[in-house]
Amino acid sequence: MQLAVKSNNFEQDIAQDRRDSSQVAERALGRVISCDGSRATIASAVSGASRLGPDAWTIGKLISVNLGHTRLVGLVYQMRAVKSAWDEAGDNAIHIDVELLGEVVEAQGGGTRFQSGISTYPPIGTLAHRIRAGDLALVHDLGARQGVTIGALTQDAGIPATVCIEDMLARHFAILGTTGVGKSSAVALLLRRAIAVKPKLRVLILDPHNEYAHAFPDKSVSMEADTLDLPFWMFRLDEFADVVFRGRPAMEDETDILREVVASARSRYRAAASHDLARDLGASLLKRPLDANAPRPTAETGAASADAPTPYRMKDALAIIDELIGLHEIRYPRGALRSLRVRLEALYGDPRYHFMFARANMIETMAPVVGQIFRLPHHGRPISVFQLAGLPSEVVNAVASVLARLAFDLAMASQGGYEVLVLCEEAHRYVPSDPALGFAPTRQAIARIAKEGRKYGCYLGVVTQRPGELDSTILSQCSTIFAMRLANERDQQIIRSAIADASASTIAFLSSIGNREAIAFGEGVATTMRMRFAELQPHELPEMALAHGGAAPRGEPLLEEMIRRMRGTS
Ligand SMILES: Nc1ncnc2c1ncn2[C@@H]1O[C@H](COP(=O)(O)OP(=O)(O)O)[C@@H](O)[C@H]1O
Ligand SMILES: [Mg+2]
């Protein structure tokens, strides 16, 4: 009896399929001729006339294997004609190899749903055919999760491609692909969607090409050397040392000197502030930025106080160096002290470093700086774009480190009040796979977001054209991946290992998919989805500032950048 019911449904299904395709003159039907559990081969035939039709069997399409009560969904990854000669007039037998991805099951209430994995295997001879539009939509349906449309399926432009922004952010995401395939444009699109659905979200873009300000003229503020304030006293010792010693590793004495100088300058500032406080008591108590809870510098906590983000004055730091030089008993080589003094003075006077020094001592707490960078309040512009190309190239790493660190700390301190997404373009520069490259504090700050950010609402988006050069532990923390065209076999291999359930046949397409196309995997999507990002209007596209002579970086950094490119190291 049960059997009869099943076969009844089966006949209905076939009839339904016929109706679906009634406009199509010739149907592409086939029969399963072999199955090994995860893959199946379908025999079909093509006539000279039908080979280009909309129903034609083609690589990369999803197809349906009809079991009546369920329909298996398979991905065509390989096909061939059975005979080596082609008959133009008659039918040509072909074999189609598919990978079985899951099944559309009829739910009890009458609806249908898609589930990954196969519970019933097709007997030999089972009918296979093009997938119904309804089933295709079901495969990529997010169910109860809130989805936003970011484009359309490649297979059927009538079906929207949706992602769950919440899940995409919470477990971090990556966009990988060769230069020019549309990564930055995809970022622009995803960020627009993300800020639209998440009002608590702030976005910080580390933008080494100065291209994103153009993409969000209405939603972002752009920060460059002239408009940015990142006071030197907010840098941690290792970050500040990286700036002071211009990226070359400091000699042991030099870091020690800097640590002592900074810690002493901090305590001097604090002492002066509390002195003033005593004097002004009663007058303007609340105007004082003094942080009573900050750790007091002592001999033991010297290192900690060199890192505490409290203000100090460059004037005091220089005076302290002078005192050390003048000491009778020589604690540090005088040459090292003098050279540090010269370096600090040079930085202080260098117009390219105005963002660190010029207004630093007018700002006496972190609040205005953090407020400016993280858009609190956002006045309708929750995105801040850091135009790194305009900064002296030797501070870029330290700045990236400070920003990533602040993002994490802010999200944590807000206790759920704000969420922060740090979007890293050219992420392989900050978190390179080779531990000898890159800047350790930046790597640490980004790794901390990748590993612990989720708990506090701090998320990471990484974009790179060189997945092979990106730290693999960072990539493995990215649970949603948009893989765009990647020609290189090694890069494809990396994606295969980063995503556990990425089917081998899907990855095989990565070398040949079109511009704006992506294969989306992981938490943010329902099932591995081959899609095409929606078209952006010209005013929504990121734009290389250099190509338009816009906010091009000036002077030395540009030259350095070019030379690095010429050497192929950038
Ligand atoms: N979604 C899109 N809508 C419209 N044009 C796009 C889109 N994606 C890419 N493009 C076009 O392709 C060009 C290169 O895209 P881009 O995002 O800069 O690539 P990538 O960052 O991968 O180098 C863009 O300048 C734009 O002209
Ligand atoms: Mg780009």
Radius of gyration: 30 Å
Q: The biggest beta sheet, please?
A: 11 strands, mixed
| SS field, number of helical segments | 19
CATH names the topology of the largest domain as Rossmann fold
Quantity of strands, as a count: 18
- Give the domain tally: 3
Q: Please, what is the CATH homologous superfamily of the largest domain?
A: P-loop containing nucleotide triphosphate hydrolases
| CATH architecture group name of the largest domain | 3-Layer(aba) Sandwich
Strand order of the largest sheet: 9-8-18-17-16-10-15-14-11-13-12
Task: Please write the CATH class name of the largest domain.
Answer: Alpha Beta
Q: Level of helix content? A: 25-40%
Query: By helix and strand content, what is the structural category?
Result: alpha/beta
Structure write-up:
The chain has an eleven-stranded mixed β-sheet. The chain is elongated, with a radius of gyration of 30 Å. With 570 residues, it is α/β, with parallel strands linked by helices. It folds into three domains: 138 residues, Elongation Factor Tu (Ef-tu), domain 3 (Beta Barrel), CATH 2.40.30; 273 residues, P-loop containing nucleotide triphosphate hydrolases (Rossmann fold, 3-Layer(aba) Sandwich), CATH 3.40.50.300; 113 residues, no CATH class. It starts with a helix and ends with a helix. Helices cover 36% and strands 20% of the residues. The structure holds adenosine-5'-diphosphate (ADP) and magnesium ion. The site of adenosine-5'-diphosphate (ADP) has 16 residues, from helix 4.
